Amino acid sequence: MDKVVELLLSSTYAIAFTGAGISTASGIPDFRGKEGLWKKYSPEIASIDYFRRDPKGFWEFYSTRMRGLFNAKPNEAHYALARLEKMGLIKYVITQNIDGLHQKAGSTNVIELHGTMQKSYCSSCFRQYDSREVLKMIDRGNLPPKCSCGGVIRPDVVLFGEAVKDIDFAVRIAYESDLVLVVGSSLTVYPANLIPQIVKEERGGSLIIINADETPLDGEADVIIREPIEIALPRIVEKIEEKIKQ
Ligand SMILES: [Zn+2]
Fold it and tell me: What distance in angstroms lies between residue 175's CA and the mean position of ligand 1's atoms?
């Protein structure tokens, strides 16, 4: 813990890389975990092929998921990262999550590799919609929800079979960084592993991993913390604040 504080305070351009693990304490299940969504549903249902084949079935599933995510609140770990950004100790949060909880907690520089479920857009004319409006359309019986042009509306998230967003930007940020704080990511999905690897291997920066389970990059990490994220991160922030006061 003290080592993390020391590394963060001596870094000049630290970034955080977050995955599903940071949001489990907010009641959002990790897809791949033991209680994960993909134990109940086939990942196929969240694929671009499925959306094209059966948009009604897709939205029946996805609207339920969206409502769950809209109701979720940030936890102490999200707030701790927002605090680190305000203190100038974290420049960017690069996330694999689509739940928008980093922004709800107050983080402003957030790169959402898998998009965001806050927004939707027409698959034909690309007109943008607030996802809450789309959910209201569904409530009124419009399933699948359609644009005024007749095109089917889709969430602005990366579906299985689609490329991640903003990866070029995220990679550029990683090349600027001298520290990456990995939070709640198993680092098994591309390009999850890429960002920390750039910071560690290409830039010679520090790698801190806070995750319940082992990751393929554990061997290269400067510090590994296995404590629950929502306890570990606030404690790190507390220690930093104490140190700054001194
Ligand atoms: Zn349209």
Answer: 38
